[in-house]
Amino acid sequence: MMNWEQLLNADRESEAHKVADIRNAFQRDYDRIIFSNIFRRMQNKTQVFPLPGSQMVHNRLTHSLEVASVGRSIARKVSTEIARRNPDLGNIIYDIDTIVSAACLAHDLGNPPFGHSGEETISSFFKDGDGKKLKAQIPDNQWSDFISFEGNANAFRQLTHTFHGRRIGGMSLTYSTLATLIKYPYPSFGNDSRKKYNVFFSEIQTFRKVMDKCGIPCLDEEKLIYARHPLSYMMEAADDICYLVLDMEDAHKRNIITTESIEGHFTAFFNAEDENDKWFFSRKKDVYDIVTDKNERMAFLRAMVINKLVDCAANIFINNYDDIMSGRFVKSLVSHLPDYEKKALEDCRSFSLENIYRNPAVVKIELTGFNVIGELMNEFVSAATNPDTTYRKKLFSLIPEQFRTNKSDIYSKVQVALDFISNMTDLYAVQLYKDIRGINN
Fold it and tell me: For 150-175, what is each residue's pLDDT tens digit?
């Protein structure tokens, strides 16, 4: 059984820059992320819809801020109940809302330009493209990182890797915040049945140290599968809640789905036959009697849905507390929603897949991502692994010093190009693509 004294480990890899102030260690984590360059760059990374545009839709930065807000609410509800049941824990348990919100801020930091299509393009470059010829030079347990490039693992790398000229331990966050960030606590190799993972080969030792420092048990030593940090379930739930609900709100603002459709899907989370939900219909009528703006009405419904799902997620965590603390809990919190709310969420998911994620505006940005990222991969992987021509040397000179390495193995050289490309914003990637191709507009 995991214990909170270890799980809430406030140590970090490097304390060289620690300054005593009114913040505790976890509040400093939150602030380090907020003020970092990599976090600010997310304002120019696509969430779903093209950027920029006349309609103010979500980008990766606004999405992460909202996930942090929802995650904090879930954690606060849970911490209040845990403290009630375990008064001997003292005030330590009240730090979990800060840890969860910090991890929520960081959960998308590893996403390359153009989101999931960027991940797919990078993977395809090594599976089916020019990168395939490097396979003979890279061991299988490293090659698996490239043929299934994963933004979650890249986020852990960006936060923990000591880049050239930077401080030891990357952003040097606390072990608790880093462990909370890990939704898939295993590396890419040896887990063929698992599509996602959280650890590149290069960060395995860091990963093990983080998990061990937090007292998280290893469930399979051969495949390096650990149990999850209990707080990671809250971070995951906050992300699950936000991306579905808010993607639908964005689609409504872009006139991709009708007001009637989104109103029906959001209202479906509340059961008119349930005494606990009758307040909602009364409140909805009061709001609709006053508010006529359709976007404001949808914002009200969105807020009510999120509030309900926050309560559900917190209750699921508490009801499954022993399984979570022993590492036996399976799947996500939202997969354990009560039947009524689960059906409403699944209906939203199915509707979004058909009417939002396959919308031409979304498909076009994905196609742009395939072309832009594909071309940049061709150019910069060649430049990083074999700068044998004047052209490639000039390309390599464009890679910032922080991403370079003194290591001579091909795996590490490829990572130089991947670190450079994955840190780009959508706009920078497109501009660099145009510059290399000599396209003027």
Answer: 999 999 999 999 998 888 888 999 99
The structure tokens 């031409």 sit at 360
pLDDT confidence of residue 193: 56
Buried b / exposed e over 38-74, threshold 16 CB at 10 Å, is bbebbebbbbbbbbeeeeebbbbbebbbbbbebbbbb
Q: Which residues contact 18 (CB under 8 A, 6 or more apart)?
A: none
Q: In the predicted model, what is the mean pLDDT of residues 257-285?
A: 92
- pLDDT of 50 strictly over 50: no
Least confident of 124-138, 154-168, 228-242, 355-369: 355-369
Question: 214: exposed, middle or buried (C-beta count within 10 Å: 0-12, 13-18, 19+)?
Answer: buried
Mean pLDDT of 47-70: 72
Q: What is the largest CA-CA distance in the chain?
A: 74
Give alpha helix (H) positions in 215-293: 230-253, 259-267, 278-290
| Cα–Cα distance for residue pair 7/177, rounded to 1 Å | 10
- C-alpha–C-alpha distance, residues 330 and 310, integer Å: 19
Task: Give me the DSSP letters along 79-100.
Answer: HHHHHHH-GGGGGGGGGHHHHH
- Pinpoint the alpha helices (H) of 86-163: 96-106, 115-127, 140-147, 151-160
**pLDDT score recorded for residue 320:** 97
- In angstroms, rounded to a whole number, what is the distance separating the alpha carbons of residues 37 and 39? 5
Amino acid at 257: I
| Phi, psi of 222, deg, nearest 5 | -65, -45
Q: Which residues contact 393 (CB under 8 A, 6 or more apart)?
A: 383, 387
pLDDT at 54: 44
CB environment 9-28: b (16+ within 10 A), e (fewer): bbebbeeeeeeeeeeebbbb
d(CA 39, CA 21): 23
Cα atoms found within 13 Å of the Cα of residue 213, Cβ hemisphere only: 19
- The three-class DSSP label of residue 113 is coil
Better pLDDT: 197 or 56: 197
Whether the upstream peptide bond of residue 52 has omega within 30° of 0, thus cis, is yes
Q: Which H or E run contains 218?
A: strand 218-220
Residue 286 CA to residue 382 CA, distance in Å, equals: 62
Task: Provide the pLDDT for residue 164.
Answer: 85
Cα separations in angstroms, 37 against 25, 243, 335, 401? 20, 23, 34, 16
